């Protein structure tokens, strides 16, 4: 492996010579894909589907209004709009626009996109509007009045940065500054927590509540409103991606450390209990609690006790601990939501969802089942404040998404909206299968294919994976790949490899840090299983992944290039020896390891895709995508990989967009173009 990096110059985000190189690569990719006669009609069909008014407008309910962010041909950047529940039920389209991002961008002469809107819970007409230039993670925060439909004079406005800002009440906010000049961590995230209190003249009062060391990862703060009207103010101080401490803020604005284990996540607060999910085993007051458990931890009155931690603050007391959900071999906790009277847990059981409700009766939480479908995937969509309502979506690969409104107290529910079918699913089947990894572990994966598919190795097959950060890969309605891939004779595969969260913390930790290559081996095992069963062959098999999934497919390409004929590597990490020096990379040391540590560097060097490109290998023509506005995963990863391949005599394609950022926050036309190019690339590599 080279000791110097001849392509490091491509990490420069401002140099004209770098932009000229990127322009040349984009021109090459466009000339190949955009001139394909399938591109233009495909882009138009995808865009028409995105703008179909029958698509479900997901919403957040605040007071008497349902709020929705909407993009269409007339509103490329989008509008924030609202309607009543009765009008929504009736399917009426009489939305009232309360904020127009296109008009705002034009007035400000800025490349604004909406990153999010946060309503003040008890005064929901006041909102924090988070605006991003070109889709990057850094945002500008402005306060907006939805009644006056104007910006609040001398409001809570904060400059551009990766800040964390949350309402405390209508006249105060928790602010963790991430803008230029503020104290930041090595990863570029906030280190300090401030309480900012409103002043009529805009000279708001600032009180510092907490400061983390520079080698921490980040801090955040927010307020929980309990069902009885009491409040709980909380600071989360992340030492690393998975290790954190929690600190309560008392009435005198002093902090009280919670004696929870470092790898625990507070998921909610209800009836005086913290709802805590464990990633490691925990021994507390003589009892043991297993990793993967969900606990209800009583929080007595905030009486400080001396802290053994030496952190400078005091420890809060904890009371009774009750196990709500215990870990099981093929089960994990996907998400937790609280209503006015109940706790609702979304469980992933053998990669399918089911909901459990818990009610507190005489101090003890009691479990009950909820009458919802359990054959697909549920995602919480909304929980209106001070109600027993939960809105959730349900879908699977072949079932269009439905939006449901469930009364958790009574069990009554209604279908609010159903997404129109994008294709006729009757001709297809979705199957769950298992491949055996090298160590004998069964790796689940899903195959979606035609019912009459002949197992002769000739089916064009796209395999998708992620395998990191305890993120689960779950079935979802393949609304674009249905008509544009399945109906053309292709198959789609979703691999649930280790590193993800499908089966809880142990499934993730099996491929964490120096064990990262386990996820690559699992992915390759699924590919080999598909070939062994005759679904496809290396000539017809392609792989796709983004971000950490980009690392996955990049690593598998350089390890086993003979297995694949297409690689779609999106916003990827690829240089694992420099990733901590690039943008937010240092925040992921917990996940990958530290290249400044000799032992961990050796493990990273053993698989870093950028460093394992070989001159004598026969790689497929791969497509690498990134964004100049990606301020999370540096575009230098994709750029340098393409340059390294070319240096050693291999062809590759780069598509770098000017906007969109890491999450693809862009106009629908750009989204449609990017997906159309990926599909045309897959047609050329796997179907033609």
UniProtKB/TrEMBL annotation:
GO MF annotations in UniProt: oligopeptidase activity; serine-type endopeptidase activity
Location of the Peptidase S9A N-terminal domain: 4-418
Entry annotated with the keyword Hydrolase: yes
Keywords: Hydrolase, Protease, Serine protease
Domain of life: Bacteria
One annotated GO biological process: proteolysis
Pfam families noted in UniProt: Peptidase_S9 (PF00326), Peptidase_S9_N (PF02897)
Limits of the Peptidase S9 prolyl oligopeptidase catalytic domain: 484-686
GO cellular component: cytosol
Entry-linked InterPro entries: AB_hydrolase_fold, Pept_S9A_N, Peptidase_S9_cat, Peptidase_S9A, Prolyl_oligopep/macrocyclase
PANTHER family in the record: PROLYL ENDOPEPTIDASE (PTHR42881:SF13)
Protein name: Prolyl oligopeptidase family serine peptidase
Native species: Craterilacuibacter sinensis
Taxonomic lineage from the root: Bacteria, Pseudomonadati, Pseudomonadota, Betaproteobacteria, Neisseriales
